[in-house]
Amino acid sequence: MGNEESTPVDESVPPQTLSSRTLEGLAEYIKSGKASKIVVMTGAGISTSAGIPDFRSPETGLYANLARLNLPYAEAVFDISFFKQNPEPFYTLAHELYPGKYRPTITHSFIRLLHDKGLLLKLFTQNIDCLEREAGVPDDKIVEAHGSFARQSCIECKHPYPEDDIKRHIAAMEIPRCHECEGLVKPEIVFFGEQLPQAFFENRMLPAQSDLCIVMGTSLTVQPFASLPGAARGHTPRLLINKERVGGLGNGTDDVLLLGDCDDGVKKLAKACGWLEELEKLWAETAGIGKDQAEGVPDEPAKSKDEVLEDEIDRLTKEVDESLNLSKWHEEKVRGELMPRSANGADAAATSEGLHSRSQPHEDEKGNLGHVFVSEDSKEVPLKSADPAPTEKKDEA
Ligand code: OAD
Q: What are the boundaries of the region Disordered (predicted)?
């Protein structure tokens, strides 16, 4: 009954905790009160229906579109070494992504609903859009694993920078400079090559205490975040709601896959749990947030989700392009520093080599995740991709 999209992977292995590896089996488990400590893990896919592109979707993702520009590689926009040389691309994106413009999706409201029902142990999010907070999930339930726009500081002297000032600069598309030392100011978003916040390491074993993990809207390609679902105990049910299967989810005895759109997925789950009306009511309360982007803006013909995303990407691409043209000289300088041996088309390969520790898994990793939990000092784990950046893959092929 209506569970065509929940796809058990190996039907020969019986589930240990659920009655069946289906949406209905999971809803039964939740309704029976056995899921009272739910850990949710999210990524950019839960915000795409708000109009914010994700990173890695092949045509609509930010990286695919930024890669067409002259960044040495797409992830450079979030690379701390690159930012120190050329902060303009990041600030161009920040201008678009700065919180306040977007309405939370029904998926954000679903997380809020779990909290209201006293079922949410913790939300780990990789998103920097703050839409979980906007949806009413309280601060103490959120681990912003890749930081957020909530605070900003000087990258040189670490002095905090006033919120009003950064808002003004981002609105005017200017680069903010520290009032103390004139250093570059950066929102406390975790860039590649930087450490994750303390809160991530303090809470990263919570999946082991949970009785249900829900993973939504993430490709699980960035470490150490990608290791979180693997920290759940053997027979703890894990639900993946995502357009594609990721991170080995589906291999566990009690994994349920709901492949497709997040918003559709949470609505189906809410319906199966008898919560749909409450969920829709909660989401309706967010209608005033980010008015520009909310549904039903008058005087505009209704656009499909894909059209909204395409518009957004076009605008971002155009603005970053303009920004890059303005700072061409700067980029050339960076290229010269990062790629001393590169005279022509070998740019990406040379970059990959120069920044090996940022984007390539360490050689001593056991599989994808091994390095994360063997580290003596967890604080030494920097943000890095589990996969090579798209341009690197292309060059290797
Ligand atoms: P990705 O873009 O890597 O992955 C998004 C995932 O969501 C993909 O698997 C998509 O198929 C899926 N998806 C997109 N829209 C969806 C929808 N409406 N419903 C269901 N699934 C959907 O984004 P993240 O995994 O969040 O780092 O990326 C992780 C990190 O990489 C980000 O935090 C960012 C980036 O570099 C920083 O900003 C530092």
A: 326-397
